[in-house]
Every structure is written in C-alpha cells, then in structure tokens.
Amino acid sequence: MKLAQINITSPVNFGAKSKEIRDADKITRQIKHNFPLFSATYGGDFYLSAKENSPNAEKSRATLNGVHKEIQRAREYFAAIGHLYSNPNQKIFSTLKRIKKGNCQENAELALAHMYANGFYDTDLCHLNFKAVVLDKNTGKYITAYNKEADHAFILTNMNKHSKKDIVIDPWLGFADGISGAISRFKKIYDEKDFDELISFLKEHIKTYEEEGKSSENFDKDYVIKKSFSIKKSNVADCSNVNKKRLGEDLLRVCPEAKFEID
Fold first, then answer.
1. Among residues 214, 217, 150, 156, which one has the least CA distance to residue 186?
2. Separation CA 129–CA 136 (nearest Å)
3. Is 21 in contact with 167 (CB distance < 8 Å)?
4. Domain span at residue 159?
5. How many domains does the chain have?
6. Residue 75 falls within a domain, yes or no?
7. Do residues 71 and 105 make contact, with C-beta atoms less than 8 angstroms apart?
C-alpha cells in the first residue's frame, strides 16, 4: 500500500471506544511487539520524505530498496515451501521472526494467526476496496462504475461476541477501530494519485463522452465522480476451525508470546 505524505498518528481516546475495540488495540500492539517488521513501503513514505534533502538520501533509498527485495525473496520462498514441507507455516513464521521485515500483507497474516492462536476464529483476512461511480452532473443519471482492490491488507473480527464483524485490526498502520472509523482513516492516508489513474481510465471509457467529441479537460463540468471505500473479505481455500486452530498452534510453536489474555 502506498501512503500519502501525512502524519497518521493521533492520540487514542480510549474513553470513546468500546471495550472490544480497546482489547483489539492491545492485541494490535502485542502483534507489533512480537513481530516488529520493518516495511519497505511504510519506510519509503515516512523515512525517505524526512531524509530527502539530507546527504544520506541516496543511501536511504538503497537501504529501502534492499528491504523491498528481501521481502520479495521471502514471499517467493513462502510460495515455494508449500511443496517442500508438510507444515510450511512454522517456516514462514520463523522466517518473519528472523528477518524482521514485511509489508501490510505479512502483518495482516500474522495478525490472523495471533487471533486464531487465541481462539478468535470469527476473524477474516481482508483487503481494502475502492469504487468510483460516474454520474451525469445535470441529470444524476448513472453512467458507469469501476472497482479496484486497493493494495492493503488487514483483518476483521467480532472478538467472539457473536455479533456483526465490526472491528478492524491493522498492525501495519498500528490501529484497531470500528469499520466506519477504519475507513475514515483509510480515506485520510491512502494516496489519491492511485485513484487518479482510475479516473483517467473512466474518462477514456465513457462512450457517450467520446462520441460527443468532448475534451477530457471538460469532464468535470459534465460528470461527477463519487468515490468510496469498502472492506472485502479475501478468499481462503480452507477456513475450517480445525485449520484455523492448526495455524494458531503453528504460530505458538515459533512465538509462545503470541498467547495473550483479555480481561
């Protein structure tokens, strides 16, 4: 996931949060403590932006490029070991523990394993989804829409409360919040230029606009684009509770500290 150049940190008002979200926030911090992964994408946005005018900027870029390559090599290794070991999960967890590097995908998968290790089976790996809807500015008529899965992963849980799954745990960004609060955070931090590419695509593929021979410069005068975020559950081949329990046990063999207690 690419971040905008802004400060995402904000003071946490625990008094305004439910007990479940406060507990989820503690879990988020525990995950980061157990697996303090350095992220190439996160570091690129925040570390390099602060260092871009320094004499060491080139060295910083080279370091982050090396981190990115190491994460890519690890992912290739993870994809391959399923055919080499009867139980590859422990290899994956021990590798992440050793290299201490990973992006949002690795953080989300570790968060999922932490939840399963503690019996929170009603938890899913999720991605952020972006949607752009084009309407005729004068009539309000629906013209077209485009959906894109944004490059960001996290988990969604109900903390075993047998209710609507309404808590996002995002260890990569370092927060836990309800769905509406999480989406508000995503809106603030996600780089808009990724969506500008979508809007350019929409402008090029609206037939009525092309047929009228209008200039794309006048697009905003005739059409309005409504942008929104949603949460999309990732497809998992076998998500039975037996396999969820096994994944949690594999994590505990590598990291016993993954066992936590919630008051």
1. 150
2. 23
3. yes
4. 14-37+103-258
5. 1
6. no
7. no
Contact 181, 231 (CB under 8 A): no
pTM: 0.81
Give the span between the Cα atoms of 109 and 171, in whole angstroms.
10
Q: Are 37 and 225 in contact (CB under 8 A)?
A: no
In eight-state DSSP terms, residue 215 is: -
pLDDT for residue 15:
45
Q: What is the DSSP pairing of strand 175-178 with strand 142-157?
A: unpaired
C-alpha to C-alpha distance for 156 and 111, rounded to whole angstroms: 10
**Coil, helix or strand at residue 192:** coil
Tokens of 50: 């602060």
Q: Given CA atoms 150, 44, 108, 247 in this order, what sign does their dihedral have? A: positive
Domain membership of residue 91 (yes or no) is no
The CA-atom distances, in angstroms, between 251 and each of 106, 107, 194 are 13, 13, 35
What is the three-state SS of 66-78? Answer: HHHHHHHHHHHHH
pLDDT tens digits, one per residue of 187-226 = 887 756 556 666 676 666 665 555 555 555 667 788 888 8
Which position has the higher pLDDT, 15 or 263?
Answer: 263
Alpha carbon distances (Å) from 102 to 21, 41, 68:
25, 9, 8
